[in-house]
C-alpha cells in the first residue's frame, strides 16, 4: 500500500485542467499574499488579505484556495483560475485548515481557541468543536483510511489522536519539545512529527501511541514535505538554514542541504524537481533542486512568509494545510 500513489504522477488531476501553475505565499506579518509564476520566478500578483495569514489551503475538490487569516477570523477565497480573490468567509481563529479524506468535513484548527472545529464543507456551518486542552494545536494528518487523525500541540509537547466520525479524542502521547508538522508514512503504518526544540523528527506508532524512533535532523525542525516519488521526506530545519532528507525505507537522514535562510513550510513542484520553501524570518522564498540540494533562486516576498502553496498538483483530492494530497 502507498497512500500517496496518486501523488507520484507528474500530471495534475483533470479537475484542475487549465489552471495556471502558481506559488501562493501568505505573508504573516504583512497581511498580504504574493503570487509567483514558477516558470519565471517572478511575482505576478500581490494583494491584501486579513491579519496574520498563516497557510494557503487548496479545497478538497481542488476548485478553491483558502487563506487562513487567524487574527482577522476570516478565510480569503482565491480562484486558482485567475489567481484573484473572490470572497471572504467569517471563520473563527483559522490557524490551519484541513479536509477529511471523504471530502465531507472541513476541520478548522483554532489554535488560539484550543479546539478543532469540524464544519460542513459546503456551508461552513459548525458541526462540532473538539476542545484540545493542550496548548498550541496547529498541524495534523489523517490515517490511511481516514478514520482518525493525529494532531500536534506545539506548546505542550503532545500529539493527540482524534476519531474523525465521533469527533472525539481517543489518545495522547507526550513527545516533549515543540512538535509541529505531521505527515503519515506512505505505507500508513506510522506518523512523522517534526519537533523544533528536539531538533529532529519523532516516528509515532498511532495504535499504541508510542514514539518508536527519533531521527535527529537539525536545529528548529519544523516543516515536512514528501518527495514526488514518495520515497523521501524533506524536513526544514528553520534555525539551521538547512533541509534534511529522510529515507522512508531506512528512517535515516540520507542528505542535508545547507540552503541558508529560515526554511519553514515547503512544497514540491509537480515534476518533483524543485522544492519551494518559505523563509519565515528572511521575507523570501527559496527554490531548491531536489536532485542535489542546490539553491536555485531566492525570491523576495512580504514579511513573515509562512505556509506557501504550489498549485495545482498531482493527486485525487486535497487534505488542505498548504497542499497535502492523496
Record keyword descriptors for this entry.
4-stranded antiparallel β-sheet, mainly beta, 51% strand, single chain, Methylamine Dehydrogenase, Chain H, 326 residues
Outline of the structure:
The chain is an all-beta fold and 326 residues long. The chain has strands at residues 22-27, 32-37, 42-48, 53-58, 65-69, 74-79, 84-90, 96-99, 105-110, 115-120, 126-131, 137-142, 148-153, 158-163, 168-174, 179-184, 191-195, 200-205, 210-216, 221-226, 232-237, 242-247, 252-258, 263-268, 274-279, 284-289, 295-300, 309-311.
Strand line-up across the major sheet: 3-2-1-28
Structural class based on helices, strands and sheet pairing: mainly beta
Distance between the termini: 12 Å
Number of helices: 0
CATH architecture: 7 Propeller
Proportion of β residues? Answer: over 45%
Query: What is the global morphology?
Result: globular
Polypeptide structure, described:
The mean pLDDT is 97. Strand 13 (148-153) and strand 14 form a beta hairpin. Helix content is 0%, strand content 51%. It has one domain (5-311): Methylamine Dehydrogenase, Chain H (7 Propeller). The chain has no helices and 28 strands. With 326 residues, it is mainly beta. The chain is globular. The strands form seven sheets. The chain has a four-stranded antiparallel sheet, with no helix packed on it.
Chart the SSEs and their pairings.
Layout: E1 22-27, E2 32-37, E3 42-48, E4 53-58, E5 65-69, E6 74-79, E7 84-90, E8 96-99, E9 105-110, E10 115-120, E11 126-131, E12 137-142, E13 148-153, E14 158-163, E15 168-174, E16 179-184, E17 191-195, E18 200-205, E19 210-216, E20 221-226, E21 232-237, E22 242-247, E23 252-258, E24 263-268, E25 274-279, E26 284-289, E27 295-300, E28 309-311
Antiparallel strand pairs: 1-2, 1-28, 2-3, 4-5, 5-6, 6-7, 8-9, 9-10, 10-11, 12-13, 13-14, 14-15, 16-17, 17-18, 18-19, 20-21, 21-22, 22-23, 24-25, 25-26, 26-27
